[in-house]
Amino acid sequence: MQPKCNDPLLKMFRIDYVGTSPYISCIPSVVHHRLSSSDRFLVLSSDGLYQYFSNEEVVAHVAWFMEHVPEGDPAQYLIAELLFRAAKKNGMDFHELLDIPHGDRRKYHDDVSVMVVSLEGRIWRSSG
Protein backbone atom coordinates (compact mmCIF):
# COMPACT_ATOMS: atom_id res chain seq x y z
CA MET A 1 0.00 0.00 0.00
CA GLN A 2 1.34 3.39 -1.02
CA PRO A 3 1.72 5.85 1.93
CA LYS A 4 -0.39 8.95 1.69
CA CYS A 5 1.32 12.35 1.63
CA ASN A 6 -0.17 13.41 4.95
CA ASP A 7 0.64 10.21 6.92
CA PRO A 8 3.82 11.67 8.55
CA LEU A 9 1.89 14.79 9.53
CA LEU A 10 -0.95 12.74 11.03
CA LYS A 11 1.55 10.70 13.08
CA MET A 12 2.91 13.93 14.61
CA PHE A 13 -0.54 14.93 15.86
CA ARG A 14 -1.84 11.52 16.87
CA ILE A 15 -2.79 11.32 20.54
CA ASP A 16 -2.48 8.02 22.35
CA TYR A 17 -5.57 8.42 24.52
CA VAL A 18 -6.01 5.66 27.09
CA GLY A 19 -9.53 6.59 28.20
CA THR A 20 -12.76 4.97 27.14
CA SER A 21 -15.36 6.33 24.79
CA PRO A 22 -17.29 8.52 24.69
CA TYR A 23 -14.40 10.95 24.99
CA ILE A 24 -16.65 13.97 25.17
CA SER A 25 -20.27 14.30 26.11
CA CYS A 26 -22.83 17.00 25.48
CA ILE A 27 -24.66 16.04 28.68
CA PRO A 28 -23.93 18.67 31.35
CA SER A 29 -23.47 17.92 35.01
CA VAL A 30 -26.22 19.99 36.62
CA VAL A 31 -26.88 20.49 40.32
CA HIS A 32 -29.93 22.29 41.66
CA HIS A 33 -29.38 24.34 44.80
CA ARG A 34 -31.87 26.60 46.53
CA LEU A 35 -30.10 29.86 47.36
CA SER A 36 -29.86 30.86 50.97
CA SER A 37 -28.76 34.06 52.66
CA SER A 38 -25.30 32.52 53.31
CA ASP A 39 -24.59 31.83 49.60
CA ARG A 40 -22.07 34.37 48.25
CA PHE A 41 -20.96 33.07 44.84
CA LEU A 42 -21.43 30.56 42.02
CA VAL A 43 -18.55 28.69 40.39
CA LEU A 44 -18.96 27.47 36.80
CA SER A 45 -16.06 25.45 35.44
CA SER A 46 -14.94 22.72 33.12
CA ASP A 47 -14.29 19.28 34.57
CA GLY A 48 -10.51 19.78 34.60
CA LEU A 49 -10.83 21.77 37.83
CA TYR A 50 -12.26 18.73 39.61
CA GLN A 51 -9.29 16.52 38.74
CA TYR A 52 -7.43 18.47 41.43
CA PHE A 53 -10.18 19.85 43.72
CA SER A 54 -13.29 18.51 45.40
CA ASN A 55 -16.42 20.68 45.41
CA GLU A 56 -15.75 21.52 49.05
CA GLU A 57 -12.17 22.59 48.31
CA VAL A 58 -13.33 24.89 45.50
CA VAL A 59 -15.85 26.55 47.81
CA ALA A 60 -13.28 26.90 50.62
CA HIS A 61 -10.64 28.39 48.30
CA VAL A 62 -13.02 30.90 46.71
CA ALA A 63 -14.52 31.93 50.07
CA TRP A 64 -11.05 32.40 51.59
CA PHE A 65 -9.82 34.36 48.59
CA MET A 66 -12.85 36.65 48.43
CA GLU A 67 -12.52 37.40 52.14
CA HIS A 68 -8.75 37.99 52.19
CA VAL A 69 -8.20 39.50 48.70
CA PRO A 70 -11.49 41.32 47.95
CA GLU A 71 -10.09 43.16 44.91
CA GLY A 72 -8.47 40.02 43.46
CA ASP A 73 -9.68 37.48 40.90
CA PRO A 74 -10.84 34.21 42.51
CA ALA A 75 -11.09 32.44 39.12
CA GLN A 76 -7.43 33.19 38.38
CA TYR A 77 -6.55 32.11 41.93
CA LEU A 78 -8.19 28.71 41.36
CA ILE A 79 -6.28 28.28 38.08
CA ALA A 80 -2.98 29.13 39.79
CA GLU A 81 -3.71 26.69 42.63
CA LEU A 82 -4.57 23.99 40.09
CA LEU A 83 -1.27 24.58 38.26
CA PHE A 84 0.65 24.34 41.56
CA ARG A 85 -1.07 21.01 42.29
CA ALA A 86 -0.46 19.70 38.76
CA ALA A 87 3.23 20.65 38.97
CA LYS A 88 3.64 19.00 42.38
CA LYS A 89 1.85 15.84 41.22
CA ASN A 90 4.26 15.60 38.28
CA GLY A 91 7.41 16.24 40.31
CA MET A 92 8.19 19.74 39.10
CA ASP A 93 7.76 23.27 40.33
CA PHE A 94 5.15 25.75 39.15
CA HIS A 95 7.48 27.65 36.79
CA GLU A 96 8.75 24.45 35.15
CA LEU A 97 5.16 23.53 34.33
CA LEU A 98 4.46 27.00 32.92
CA ASP A 99 7.53 26.70 30.67
CA ILE A 100 5.96 23.70 28.91
CA PRO A 101 4.07 24.77 25.74
CA HIS A 102 0.27 24.62 26.14
CA GLY A 103 -0.18 21.74 23.70
CA ASP A 104 2.39 19.60 25.51
CA ARG A 105 1.05 20.64 28.91
CA ARG A 106 -2.08 18.55 28.25
CA LYS A 107 0.04 15.58 29.36
CA TYR A 108 0.12 17.09 32.88
CA HIS A 109 -3.33 18.67 33.32
CA ASP A 110 -6.57 19.10 31.41
CA ASP A 111 -7.56 22.45 29.93
CA VAL A 112 -9.54 24.36 32.53
CA SER A 113 -11.99 27.25 32.34
CA VAL A 114 -13.41 28.83 35.49
CA MET A 115 -15.99 31.55 36.05
CA VAL A 116 -16.81 32.83 39.53
CA VAL A 117 -20.01 34.86 39.80
CA SER A 118 -20.46 36.86 42.97
CA LEU A 119 -24.09 36.94 44.03
CA GLU A 120 -23.36 40.59 44.83
CA GLY A 121 -22.81 41.41 41.14
CA ARG A 122 -19.15 40.75 40.14
CA ILE A 123 -17.98 38.16 37.58
CA TRP A 124 -14.44 36.80 37.10
CA ARG A 125 -13.34 34.52 34.21
CA SER A 126 -10.08 32.66 33.72
CA SER A 127 -8.61 29.68 31.93
CA GLY A 128 -5.41 27.73 32.01
Produce a short descriptive summary.
This protein has 5 helices and 3 strands, in the order αβααααββ. The chain has 128 residues and is α+β, with helices and mostly antiparallel strands.
Q: What distance separates the N and C termini?
A: 43 Å
Helix share bin: 25-40%
Please mark out the parts with pLDDT under 50 across 5 or more consecutive residues, or reply none: none
Element order, helices and strands? HEHHHHEE
Largest sheet: 3 strands, antiparallel
Q: C-alpha Rg, in Å?
A: 19 Å
- Oligomer, anyone? single chain
| Distinct helical segment count | 5
Overall pLDDT confidence: 81
Structural class: alpha+beta
Overall shape: globular
Across the major sheet, the strand order is 1-2-3
Number of strands: 3
Proportion of residues in β-strands:
5-15%
